[in-house]
Amino acid sequence: QVQLVESGGGLVQAGGSLRLSCAASGRTFSNTPMGWFRQAPGKEREFVAIINWGGLNSTYYTDSVAGRFTISRDNAKNMVYLQMNSLKPEDTAVYYCAAGSRFTLAHTMRLLSAVKDWGQGTQVTVSS
C-alpha cells in the first residue's frame, strides 16, 4: 500500500520559514518524480514544486514561490522536503505531497491528472 505522509506544517509569522517533510513508502520512488501541491480555502489545488528523478534531480517551481521555496529529495530515505522561506500570508494552504508515475518526466506533473499518489496534507498558516 502506497503511503505519503507529510509533516512539518504549522503557524508562522510572515517572513518566517518552515520545512515540510514527506515520508514515502509502498513502492519504488527513486525513479519517480515527486512534488508538492497546495490548496487554499475556496481555491483549486495547484502545483508548487516538483523534483525529477535520476542523477539530475532538476526542479520546477510555480512563479509565486520561485526563489523562496526549495524542493529536495533523499532517495536513500524515501523522503521529499520543501524548505519554505520568506513566507507570505498568501502561502497559507494545505500542502500535499505527490508522486508521479515511474520514469515519467517531472514537468508533466504540473497537472493534477499526472499525479499518481497523494498524501493526506499538512496545514501551513502564515499570519501577517
Short description:
The protein is mostly beta strands and 128 residues long.
Give a description of the structure:
The protein has strands at 3-7, 10-13, 18-25, 34-39, 46-51, 59-61, 69-74, 79-84, 93-99, 117-118, 122-127. It has 128 residues and is an all-beta fold. The strands form two sheets. Strands 2, 4, 5, 6, 9, 10 and 11 form a seven-stranded mixed β-sheet that branches. Strands 1-3-8-7 form a four-stranded antiparallel β-sheet, with no helix packed on it. A hairpin with a 7-residue loop joins strand 5 and strand 6 (59-61). 34% of the residues are buried. The model has no long low-confidence stretch (mean pLDDT 95).
SSE succession = EEEEEEEEEEE
Number of strands: 11
Strand content: over 45%
* Quaternary structure classification: single chain
The major sheet is characterized as: 7 strands, mixed
- The number of distinct helices, counting runs of at least 4 residues, comes to 0
Overall geometry comes to globular
Structure class: mainly beta
- Low-pLDDT segments: none
Distance N to C terminus: 40 Å
Helical residues, percent:
under 10%
Rounded to an integer in angstroms, the radius of gyration calculated over CA atoms is 14 Å
Nearest-integer average pLDDT: 95
